């Protein structure tokens, strides 16, 4: 066994088979190549473990699965089908290799359609097993690295709405270049997060990302902050100081709210962008720097340039690639995902147990216009978490937002059912004497069941239709006691 083979097989393989001899044979082959092997004797046991690992960040998924088609309880095909609800785009979260001693063409076709990585028959060929598992582990490693890269680049940028998908596409594209980028957008939209994402996507990501809030630095200090000063350059300059351009050498300098920078400082920034050289305040020797400059503003720099309030030549130097951050009111579809993210953050930062948020509360939040954008949403969520006694319900939403949602329109939106409409009439009549909480749970249970039946009990599609995350829906099913196939 070569060192390369050991590196390729440095992963965990879950073997699912109710035949002890098959499990033992696969263990010997795979451990001989350097893999770690775990076993499950039934489809139910495998599904329980994989579901737990896919929904709990503290647990590790195996890197690959080998599973028999014919198992005592749930068949391998049924487990594969259910695993599609745990991954992305209906695919299992890890590569699954299906094996069978009585395979049919129909089995192979169905397994392939359900996302199986490979399919072959017993008796097992040692070479075939090794090649298939090696390829599966390589794919698993590549997908894990891609997820880690996405997390490193995009960090806390949350959203799958059309404006955000387009923005992320642009971030990935410009990140690979050295082009200067001007990020515009209202206050609170997350311009700094986009600047960090561009830096992380660039060849400079191993070097410093330095942020300068141009609006927060007094006019008389901005040049010293950006370009540094020599000892004795002015009263209080008791030692030499590097400027932020020097600190960001080989990395990225982010000039936030550059529209608030005075014209004299703008002229010196332009000189650095043109020549790559700066001179410290009180100094004479030029200093060479290699810095990528990103800038952001909530103001219209082009209009300011026309009015003589911003240097036009600097504007064109900065705005090689303009990126606009959409306000939250233009991407309300992202509110549920953002809200859940901020709930997790608020719970961690305040030492509180994890909490859920009801669909009714999310629906109300998604109707607000959010003039303060993502920053306002984050503050509201933290307030709700701190003041609530448990999971967040509609009553935990600030009153001013509840009234705003109530006035947003009386017509039922997508996925909503008006009171007294069709299949819920009987429920409303039967449960009308229940206390509010019990009635709400009964309606929620009936509605989720209704959606599950509409989507043939596919949890991923149902969660998408409900506008909630798949893991949240799994928790709801358990909490409400909903069983698959229930009528």
From TrEMBL:
GO terms under biological process: phosphorelay signal transduction system; regulation of DNA-templated transcription
Alphabetical list of Pfam families matching this protein: AAA_lid_14, HTH_8, Response_reg, Sigma54_activat
Leader sequence residues: none
Domain of life: Bacteria
GO MF, one annotated term: sequence-specific DNA binding
Domain Sigma-54 factor interaction, chain residue ranges per copy: 157-386
Keywords for this protein: ATP-binding, DNA-binding, Nucleotide-binding, Phosphoprotein, Transcription, Transcription regulation
SUPFAM superfamilies according to UniProt: CheY-like, Homeodomain-like, P-loop containing nucleoside triphosphate hydrolases
Residues the record lists as 4-aspartylphosphate modifications: 68
Ranges where the Response regulatory domain occurs: 12-137
Record InterPro entries: AAA+_ATPase, AAA_lid_NorR, CheY-like_superfamily, Homeodomain-like_sf, HTH_Fis, P-loop_NTPase, Sig_transdc_resp-reg_receiver, Sigma_54_int
SMART domains linked: AAA, REC
Protein name (Swiss-Prot/TrEMBL): Two component, sigma54 specific, transcriptional regulator, Fis family protein
Organism: Plesiocystis pacifica SIR-1
